[in-house]
Backbone:
């Protein structure tokens, strides 16, 4: 089901989004050599409880997982890209970590993800993360009233091809608001000027994710963790975005990022 939100309801989602952005910034700064993934998970649990929020992941039990998830973060390391199940793993020099979280506050949900490198970075990993971030901003910039859902997908796919990465279409962005997953599904590649018309009040999670040398994936035995099929590194970036009369409004910006007010992308595309 697709539900258009009023400006007041979008403001309430923005409260949740601000918390998600702040907590992801905290967790990213804490991701260092020697830190256990479960330390990050338990820190997030404490902050969510303290805020009076509710994790959208704790009871999450889709058909593909061995649910419920029973954690509040997706922590995906190196070749893991989505739904990484937190476990007893100590971060090492050069690890590429993707952190994804969705919570609800007073009945309104926000969802966001960021990828970081622990310790000294590999230039190819920096390029991979940059590609997801540039694709995210391109998708956000395309999320304008009167456009089409395919405009967002096409913008993301164009960035992937520019950087030399393939695109997997099995998992992508999605609508959200009162729950973590609402309509529509938002593929990470597509054709411009196709698909549903974008209207003010539509709230979506835009989430490009790429693998370095494949567009195929595989699942771990835990039923959750999704990895690149060939073991190559992966990265994932995501924001919750509201389409408004004046353009896209990003609800999950992290401290230090630009405001992301309607029509104002947070970063210039490096494609030029």
Residues:
């Amino acid at each position: 089901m697709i539900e258009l939100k009023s400006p007041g309801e979008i403001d309430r989602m923005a409260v949740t989004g601000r918390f998600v952005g702040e907590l992801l910034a905290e967790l990213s700064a804490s991701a260092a050599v020697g830190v256990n993934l479960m330390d990050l998970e338990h820190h997030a649990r404490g902050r969510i409880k303290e805020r009076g929020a509710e994790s959208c992941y704790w009871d999450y039990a889709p058909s593909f997982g061995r649910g419920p998830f029973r954690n509040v973060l997706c922590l995906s390391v190196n070749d893991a890209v989505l739904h990484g199940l937190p476990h007893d793993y100590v971060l090492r020099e050069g690890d590429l970590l993707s952190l994804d979280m969705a919570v609800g506050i007073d009945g309104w949900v926000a969802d966001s993800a960021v990828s970081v490198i622990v310790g000294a970075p590999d230039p190819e990993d920096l390029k991979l993360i940059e590609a997801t971030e540039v694709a995210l901003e391109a998708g956000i910039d395309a999320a304008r009233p009167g456009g089409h859902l395919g405009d967002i997908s096409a913008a993301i796919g164009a960035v992937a091809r520019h950087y030399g990465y393939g695109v997997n279409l099995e998992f992508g962005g999605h609508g959200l608001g009162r729950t973590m997953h609402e309509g529509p599904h938002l593929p990470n590649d597509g054709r411009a000027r196709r698909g549903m018309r974008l209207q003010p009040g539509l709230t979506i999670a835009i989430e490009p994710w790429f693998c370095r040398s494949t567009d195929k994936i595989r699942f771990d035995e835990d039923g959750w963790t999704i990895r690149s099929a060939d073991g190559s590194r992966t990265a994932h970036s995501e924001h919750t975005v509201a389409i408004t009369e004046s353009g896209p409004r990003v609800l999950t910006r992290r401290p230090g990022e630009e405001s992301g007010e309607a029509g104002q992308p947070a970063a210039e595309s490096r494609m030029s």
In short: The first strand starts at residue 54 and ends at 55. The chain has one domain: 7-250.
